[in-house]
Specification:
The complex is a heterotrimer of chains A (about 500), B (about 450) and C (about 120). Chain A contains 13 helices and twelve strands. Chain A has about 500 residues and is an alpha/beta fold. Chain A is globular, with a radius of gyration of 26 Å. Chain A has two domains: about 260 residues, 3-Layer(aba) Sandwich (Aspartate Aminotransferase, domain 2); about 120 residues, Aspartate Aminotransferase, domain 1 (Alpha-Beta Complex). In chain A, β2, α6 and β3 form a beta-alpha-beta unit. Chain B is of the alpha/beta class and about 450 residues long. Chain B has two domains: about 120 residues, Aspartate Aminotransferase, domain 1; about 260 residues, Aspartate Aminotransferase, domain 2 (3-Layer(aba) Sandwich), CATH 3.40.640. Chain B has a seven-stranded mixed beta sheet, sandwiched between helices. In chain B, strands 10-11-13-12 form a four-stranded antiparallel beta sheet. In chain B, strands 8-9 form a two-stranded antiparallel ribbon. Chain C has one domain: Beta Barrel (OB fold (Dihydrolipoamide Acetyltransferase, E2P)). Chain C has five helices and nine strands. The longest helix of chain C is centred in the C-terminal third of the chain and has 11 residues. Classes of the chains: A alpha/beta (about 500), B alpha/beta (about 450), C alpha+beta (about 120). Chains A and B meet through α1, α2, α3, α4 and α5 of A and α1, α2, α3, α4 and α5 of B.
Chain lengths: ~500, ~450, ~120
């Protein structure tokens, strides 16, 4: 049985290069940067001069460029192919965004320069804030959180600050069974205990269970809408009402905003706070894991508690409010990070928003929902669909179709990799068994979706036909095949050490 | 619209396959009362040319740091980034890739994170580092949370030499967690006694190295006192280039290092995105927040890397997670590691030496011009004590085309003691000419 | 091992005198997959029946292990620090987690014997 292409002498395979660690390419004294000789000075380091070597390897520029070029070639990316990852919104990352973010007038600005020298930057933040508030129908936005989870924390902290200000400290937060893990983790950091609310067999939050759980000790209800099953919470107006009647705040996780941008405003739904993911809905690049940006829109009730800093327009100019004392009437609960927020991502997001415009953004969310429903229609006869459609921007299947095949959801995903696709989100949400959550986004062409559908149908047929061995061996065509995650967790090797031998684990 | 591939013909065909009369029908679960019938009140779509024109105009209203003599620090230091770095991070397979949850098609990301983790551990003198946090301030706050978990004690002591943003961020993260946070007053004279503040309930002491005034102090006595009392020493850093010249915090007894890494590889970016570094001792690794890349083998016995120890993280432990953090600062960490790879041992040490030499030169010139320098020690940042408030002076100099530094009152307002203090920094990007202009301008104004 | 008693949370107890050795069942370790880490409590800690005692981690999941009875922790299995795979290899033998000095033998009496536990897991699966 063929286990893979024939080995070569170098281990390279044509354009697919093996590439050692930088530490394994060291030559003492070598460097990739020409810096002038420092003039001799009398040290003012207080006797704390570094005496011993650090142990950093020395490489020249050509070696460094080749190293990272080769590494990049081992990565899948949106630029390469389709990522049907649910709730990640892996849409195209426009290069105009990159060009604008790199303008020296944005990139080469120090956050503490005098305000007179950064009016254009403050104007950009204010303009983006205006677009965000208009699209969400909310009166205020906190721009500083660095990512979605950070934004969740911001929203929940504002809620807790508001409750304490009215002398009504509460102890619990309600979260649906289907919630993303950041939701309960965030609630715990705010000092809240977390209670789960079950879903109905229609895949939405059980309104009766929510009503039963709400009392004077619930601080907030955290909902994702559209929810993590890819469905619009059609009872959301009722949910908002009962949450508010109980004196609690309604937090919305905005990870799935791409389904409804330009069509539905969270402010109209009764939301008190919602974080946005600029790196999802608004196309800023995922960058292999970050950086993100998570602005949080706030209702009138929560706006006074927004964290520092924020931008105001006063007497014909923009100003930064960086201290509580400069904002009479506001009661900021604190500060989320150093400086002002993820300016580099703000520029990118505004370039994206102004490129699309109000009409384009509405078209984008329409196409996102159309694409997801197209996948639902074309795959629901081969995959198992736990909830009836229509879905929003993502469609949830479960692994029922694999029953009796000896192929797991994981095996199926690895076989997709060989077919040139990144797998969809698996095993989330936890409310269905072996979840497969697919979000195509609006930037996949019909041709791309048809190829995907055809490949999925083929894989499902092969699984059902009993070809389990092929699935267990997948992936076959990647730079590395399945990796031993158990060993990595049992005996973690988290850095290179000088006594490591190349290609073998350290003793 | 250039980013939307579907044609009207596609849309019609797809609706046919779905069996829906219109796209609006797919939104039938949205209550009519909230379903907008028309686009919101914002401008319509624009081509690249128009977008560029508008954003370029906004950028032109700003004074770029590189266009004038520039001396700002206060937690963000301007360094020269080699041209290769920005080219490499813009490769589509880095820029547009996702978190490496499927390791077979993410070995590029995982290998550079492993290298990054190693570099951070080496320069900080610690055992292990994570794959980055949002920034130095949030790293510092997370370090406080971790110290509480490790020691099972609630309280935190924050040095008066800590950057006020780091202090505020740490206070905010711990705000609702039943923790007594002792914030020592800003340590202008450099004689604070942080050791005296350590108590039975202290989880950690957090000091900054160099501190926010630019001073360098020996951390070993503080580390010893912490350990004797059963507490941890957290060392915060806002200028990572200092580690090319100074002894590593790990060699001075640090238990956790929480640093800002942006100085390498990344532009100033008006405050973000930045990149937090987080490093600790081997024995605490399971209490560390954030992602970790770990080495392993694949089924063919070839070396590779995976994300590991994930059970600490939010998507598995949920409310018992070590943090709620989900993203790291991926691309910024990549820029850091590429820059440090280019520098290497020789380059990193030389870069630090150049920074220090330039600031020594600045200090000497300022002293000659009759200005009072608070610091007896420094790396690349000084605190000046002027005869009058620093903020209006800085504004006037800005109008004259010099970005002279950060007035302390910007960070610590409402305190007359600080109104006359000015933070100035000189990196390798500052020229002798710049220094001359600054000294002449300050001398004249004072 | 017919002297074992089982809880609904898949812990087993072997009682010798007033010391109960506690671990997780073979069924549980199969469900978990490869165990990569075990978080053990401190010796001397008091535990309550059905309260948190340990955490057992696989690559993709972390599960609470509850104390099946009231008592005080008198010993923990330090071998698991180096070799967490003992839980998979010998779940009712060398893969034990903790020893509790129990306060109420009746609690052990009330637990399922092996036959009852096997029936219980058959109906759950």
């Amino acid at each position: 049985m063929e286990t893979g292409p024939t080995e070569t002498h170098t281990g390279n395979r044509g354009l697919r290069m093996e590439e050692p660690l930088i530490f394994e390419q060291d030559a003492p004294g070598r460097t990739g940067v020409d810096l002038p000789e420092p003039p001799p000075v009398q040290s003012r380091l207080g006797g704390l001069e570094r005496k011993d070597a650090i142990g950093l390897p020395g490489l020249s520029e050509p070696q460094v460029v080749r190293h990272y070029t080769r590494l990049s070639q081992k990565n899948y990316a949106i630029d390469t192919g389709f990522y049907p990852l649910g709730s990640c919104t892996m849409k195209h990352n426009p290069r105009l965004n990159e060009k604008m973010a790199r303008l020296p007038g944005f990139a080469d600005l120090h956050p503490m320069q005098p305000e007179s020298t950064v009016q254009g930057a403050l104007k950009l933040i204010d303009t983006l804030a205006h677009w965000i508030k208009t699209l969400t129908g909310m009166p205020a936005v906190a721009m500083s959180p660095a990512a979605g989870a950070h934004g969740e924390l911001c929203g929940l902290m504002a809620a807790r600050a508001a409750l304490e200000a009215r002398g009504d400290a509460r102890k619990r937060v309600l979260v649906p069974d289907s919630a993303h893990g950041t939701n309960p983790a965030t609630a715990a950091i705010c000092g809240y205990s977390v209670e789960s609310i079950p879903l109905t067999d229609r895949g939405r939050v059980d309104l009766n269970a929510l009503k039963a759980a709400l009392d004077g000790d619930v601080a907030a209800f955290m909902l994702t809408n559209p929810n993590t099953c890819g469905l619009f919470e059609d009872e959301i107006l009722e949910q908002a009402e009962v949450v508010h009647d109980a004196g609690a705040f309604f937090y919305c996780d905005g990870a799935n905003f791409n389904a409804i941008v330009g069509r539905v405003r969270p402010g109209d739904l009764g939301i008190d706070c919602m974080h946005l993911n600029l790196h999802k809905t608004f196309s800023t690049p995922h960058g292999g894991g970050g950086p993100g940006s998570g602005p949080v829109v706030l209702s009138e009730a929560l706006a006074p508690y927004a964290p520092l800093p924020w931008v105001v327009y006063v007497d014909g100019g923009f100003e930064l409010i960086e201290h509580a004392g400069d904002a009479p009437g506001a009661a900021p609960y604190g500060r989320m990070k150093a400086f002002h927020g993820q300016m580099g991502m703000f520029v990118r997001a505004l370039a994206y928003m102004t490129s699309h415009g109000a009409d384009g953004l509405r078209q984008a969310s329409s196409d996102a929902v159309l694409n997801a429903n197209y996948l639902l229609a074309q795959l629901s006869d081969v995959f198992s669909l736990p909830y009836d459609g229509p879905c929003m921007h993502e469609v949830l299947f479960d692994d029922g179709f694999l029953k009796g095949t000896d192929v797991t959801t994981l095996d199926f995903a690895k076989a997709m990799i060989d077919e040139g696709f990144h797998p969809m989100t698996m095993y989330f949400p936890l409310v269905v068994h072996g979840a497969l959550l697919m979000e195509p986004t609006e930037t996949e062409s019909r041709e791309s979706l048809d190829q995907f559908i055809d490949a999925m149908r083929n894989l499902a047929a092969r699984a059902k036909a009993g070809d389990a061995a092929a699935f267990h061996n997948a992936p076959m065509h990647t730079p590395r095949r399945r990796l031993d995650e158990t060993a990595a967790a049992r005996r973690p090797v988290l850095r290179w050490r000088p006594d490591s031998v190349q290609g073998e684990a350290a003793e | 619209m250039r980013y939307l591939p579907l044609t009207d013909s596609d849309r019609q065909d797809m609706l046919g396959a779905i069996g829906a009369p219109s796209v609006d029908a797919l939104f039938r679960d949205v209550p009519d009362s909230v379903h907008l019938s028309a686009p919101v009140d914002l401008p319509s779509h624009q081509g690249e040319l128009e977008v560029e024109r508008a954003l370029t105009a906004m950028a032109a209203e700003n004074v770029a740091a590189g266009s004038v003599p520039f001396f700002l620090g206060a937690g963000a230091y301007r360094h020269h980034v080699p041209a290769s770095v920005d080219h490499l991070i813009q490769r589509g397979e880095f820029l547009t890739s996702y978190t490496p949850y499927q390791p077979e098609v993410s070995q590029g990301t995982l290998q550079y994170l492993f290298e990054f983790q190693t570099q951070v551990a080496l320069i900080t003198g610690m055992d292990v580092a994570n794959a980055s946090m949002y920034d130095g301030a949030t790293s510092c706050a997370e370090a406080a949370l971790m110290a509480r978990r490790v020691t099972r004690r609630p309280d935190v002591v924050l040095s008066g030499g800590l950057h006020p943003h780091y202090t505020e961020t740490t206070e905010t993260l711990l705000k609702f967690l039943d923790s007594k946070i002792e914030v020592m007053p800003p340590d202008i004279e450099g004689d604070e006694d942080v050791i005296a503040r350590i108590g039975d309930g202290t989880a950690c002491v957090i000091v900054q190295y160099p501190d926010m005034f630019g001073r360098v102090r020996d951390l070993q006595p503080i580390a010893d006192a912490c350990h004797e009392a059963g507490a941890l020493l957290v060392v915060a850093m806002s200028e990572i280039v200092a580690l090319g010249a100074l002894r590593a915090p790990g060699d001075l007894g640090a238990d956790i290092v929480a640093a800002e890494g942006r100085s390498l590889g990344n532009p100033l970016n008006f405050g973000g995105p930045y990149v937090g570094l987080f490093a600790t001792r081997e024995k605490y690794v399971r209490q560390m927040p954030g992602r970790l890349a770990g080495e392993t083998e694949d089924v063919d016995g070839k070396r590779g890397w995976v994300l590991t120890l994930s059970t600490r993280e939010q998507h598995i432990r949920r409310e018992k997670a070590t943090s709620n953090i989900c993203t790291n600062s991926g691309l910024c960490a990549l820029a850091f590691t590429i820059h440090l790879s280019l520098l290497g041992e020789e380059g990193f040490r030389r870069l630090a030496a150049l920074n220090h030499a330039k600031t020594v030169s600045l200090a000497d010139s300022l002293a000659k011009a009759g200005l009072e320098i608070v610091n007896d020690t420094f790396f690349n940042e000084l605190t000046l004590r002027l005869g009058s408030p620093a903020a209006p002076l800085v504004d006037r100099l800005a109008a004259d085309g010099i970005l002279a530094g950060v007035p302390m009152s910007r960070l610590l307002p409402g305190n007359d003691d600080f109104a006359n203090l000015l933070l100035v920094s000189a990196t390798e990007t500052v020229t002798d000419e710049d220094i001359e202009r600054l000294c002449a301008a300050l001398k004249e104004a004072v | 091992m017919s002297d074992l008693r089982f809880s609904k949370e898949h812990e087993w107890v072997r009682l010798e005198g007033d010391v109960a050795t506690v671990g997780i069942s073979n069924f549980a370790q199969e469900q978990l997959g490869d165990v990569v880490f075990v978080e053990l409590p401190d010796v001397g800690k008091t535990v309550e029946q059905n309260g948190d005692a340990c955490v057992v981690e696989s690559v993709k999941a972390a599960s609470e292990v509850y104390a099946p009875v009231d008592g005080e922790i008198v010993e923990v299995n330090v071998a698991l620090e180096e070799d967490p795979e003992l839980v998979n290899q010998s779940p009712t033998g060398d893969g034990w987690f903790i020893k509790i000095c129990i306060s109420d033998p009746a609690q052990v009496e009330a637990m399922m014997d092996e036959a009852a536990y096997n029936a219980f897991t058959a109906s759950e699966g």
